[in-house]
Amino acid sequence: MLNNPTIDKLIDLKLVGMLNAFKQQQEMPELTKLSFDERFGLLVDAEHSDRESAKLVQRLKVAKLRHSASLEDIDFQHARGLDRKMVGQLATCEWIRKGLNVLITGPTGVGKTYLACAFAQKSCRLGFTTAYLRAPRFFQELTVARLNGSYTRLLSKLAKFDLLVLDDFALVPVSEEQCRDLLEVTDDRCGKSSLVIASQLPVENWYQTFENATLADAILDRVVHESYRLVLQGESLRKKKKKEEQDAKA
Question: What ranges make up the beta strands (E) of the chain?
Fold first, then answer.
């Protein structure tokens, strides 16, 4: 007789996980052998798990990752210089807790974006707030924000993310205004939160893409010296996959 009022109250309190677990317990007579504390513990565990899952979904929604990537699905068989041991070390996300950065470089098609998104997805799973942006869109949003008066607010928003992923970095020269924007962002994050930067250019060549040498020194000092580097090599995986598909049809 108490079940319906209890269910109504769980619905009213928005305890969805506990509600579903409670209904399951009603359908499993063998659980009556458990003590009250054990059954209540199962209900609490279900509610906690449900809420954590909802938080993860929200973090991934906010992150807007380009790929639904996972570190567990990374292919280490292709010869592209990917260090399995380092990836395993970075998978703990301890570098995010320490405010360090990860720089991923290599030619087009070797999996830089996928790897960056895989690190971002793992960070979301571990409870870190994350955002993914291609560098052109990143600079565009900052330019628009400066024009419409929301620049400070956008900088504050970006600074709050535990991890910020910048993809396709330095594909084109970085203007002086963009240098100033990037300095603001990197200064806000230095030693406090992390960056993943993916670029076709080797890190050693980044300096040459900045139009302002003084700002370049300041930016790279904040980004490069406190970072892990993953240098990918080899043939484009997209090209290789397409060739394999064509060979399979032949």
Answer: 101-105, 130-134, 163-167, 194-199, 227-231
Non-local (6+) Cβ contacts of 116 within 8 A are: 102, 104, 132, 165, 167, 196, 198
pLDDT above 90 covers a percentage of the chain that reads 68
For the chain, count helices (H), then strands (E): 12, 5
The amino acid at residue 220 is L
d(CA 140, CA 2) in angstroms, rounded, equals 58
pTM here?
0.85
Q: In the chain, which stretches have pLDDT less than 70?
A: 1-3, 79, 236-250
Asked if 109 contacts 236 with a C-beta cutoff of 8 angstroms, the reply is yes
d(CA 123, CA 104): 16
Domains and CATH numbers, the chain: 3-62 (no CATH), 64-234 (3.40.50.300)
CB-based contacts of 185: which residues, under 8 Å, 6+ apart?
Answer: 155, 158, 159, 164
- Distance, CA of 166 to CA of 195 (rounded, Å): 7
Phi/psi at 91 (5° precision): -65, -20
3-state secondary structure of 131: strand
